[in-house]
Structure formats: structure tokens, C-alpha cells
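[Discussion] Sanity-checking designs against the backbone

I'm trying to build intuition for which residues belong where. Below is a C-alpha cell string of 191 positions. I'd appreciate it if someone posts a full sequence so I can compare it with mine line by line.
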């Protein structure tokens, strides 16, 4: 009886050890959180962190799977004072994760940028459209919260329509390029 119980105990402990070494089945496309909502830290603390004209107030990222994600962003600002202005910006894009571990995620992608602004005192409409390849580095602090930076190289085409002139050609156009969002830190909430 004691021998039978001892053998049974060893068989049960042995089978538990076998099960403890197996890993749960993971699929390639499993994503813990599909959505990420980000806001620039400079929106909270202007004096300590840099702001950027190429940054959007609110950014959203939707993970299609572990590697690919769609992105969108929006910004809005209005000042009703005498020399006030209105600024609106929208962007869409995609990115691909190329390295990821428990805390770090590295990705690259591109955004299509667009913006409109109007300043009351000069009565000019400013339009811009462009593309911005980017490199993203995200540090996951906890499951639902991370910080990230996304430096980019932007190429924009600008159109200014002067509504206050009597000239026949009211439009002025030019292109610009440069580095954007360098030093711009973003707070992200995952859900």
C-alpha cells in the first residue's frame, strides 16, 4: 500500500513537471491591446518638453496584428482674439513593428499629413499636404501605459491663398522638408 501510494505520488509529480514545461500556444497574430491613444507631453508641461508644429494633439493607432498597424491623428486650435487664428490638422498612415520585447517596441512607417490654418489679421488661408516617414520607439511602462518618440523626416507642399489682395494671382506655393518631432515625447494609453 505504501509502495503503491509512493509510485502514484511520483507519477503525479512527474506529470506536473511535464505540464509545467509546456508553453501556452501563441499565434503570430495575437495582440494584447489593439488600440493606442496618444497625447504629447508638451500639452501638459510646455516649459519642460519641446513642442513641434508637425505633432498632432491626439494620435490613434490600431494594431491589425502583431506586426502592422494603422494610424491617425488630429489637431485643432482656435483663438478668437483680435489677431486670432484657426488651425486644423489631420493625418493617416501605417507602421510596421520590426523588433519587440516585453518593454520595448521599435517600428517604422509613414504618415500622410494635411493641415489648414487661417489668421484673422492677415486674411490668408494656408493649406499644407505632405508625407512623413518615421521611426517609432515605444517603452511600455505597464500593460496599459507607454511613452514613445517618433522622429520623422517630412516633405510638405504649402499653398497660401491671400484673400485680402486685389492681385489676379492670389496663390503662393512652396515646398519644405525637415526633421520633425525630434525630442517630442508622447504619452500612450492602450486598450
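Best answer:
Here's mine. Compare freely.
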Amino acid at each position: 500500500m505504501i509502495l503503491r501510494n509512493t509510485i502514484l505520488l511520483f507519477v503525479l509529480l512527474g506529470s506536473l513537471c511535464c505540464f509545467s514545461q509546456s508553453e501556452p500556444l501563441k499565434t503570430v497574430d495575437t495582440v494584447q491591446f489593439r488600440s493606442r491613444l496618444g497625447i504629447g507631453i508638451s500639452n501638459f508641461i510646455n516649459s519642460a518638453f519641446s513642442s513641434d508644429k508637425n505633432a498632432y494633439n491626439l494620435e490613434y493607432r490600431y494594431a491589425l496584428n502583431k506586426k502592422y498597424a494603422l494610424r491617425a491623428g488630429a489637431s485643432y486650435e482656435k483663438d478668437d482674439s483680435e489677431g486670432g487664428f484657426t488651425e486644423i490638422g489631420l493625418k493617416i498612415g501605417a507602421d510596421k513593428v520590426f523588433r519587440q520585447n516585453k518593454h520595448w517596441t521599435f517600428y517604422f512607417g509613414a504618415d500622410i499629413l494635411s493641415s489648414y490654418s487661417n489668421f484673422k489679421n492677415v486674411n490668408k488661408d494656408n493649406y499644407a499636404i505632405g508625407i512623413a516617414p518615421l521611426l517609432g520607439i515605444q517603452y511600455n511602462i505597464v500593460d496599459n501605459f507607454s511613452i514613445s518618440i517618433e522622429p520623422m523626416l517630412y516633405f510638405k507642399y504649402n499653398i497660401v491663398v491671400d484673400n485680402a489682395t486685389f492681385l489676379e494671382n492670389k496663390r503662393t506655393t512652396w515646398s519644405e522638408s525637415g526633421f520633425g518631432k525630434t525630442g517630442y515625447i508622447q504619452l500612450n494609453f492602450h486598450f
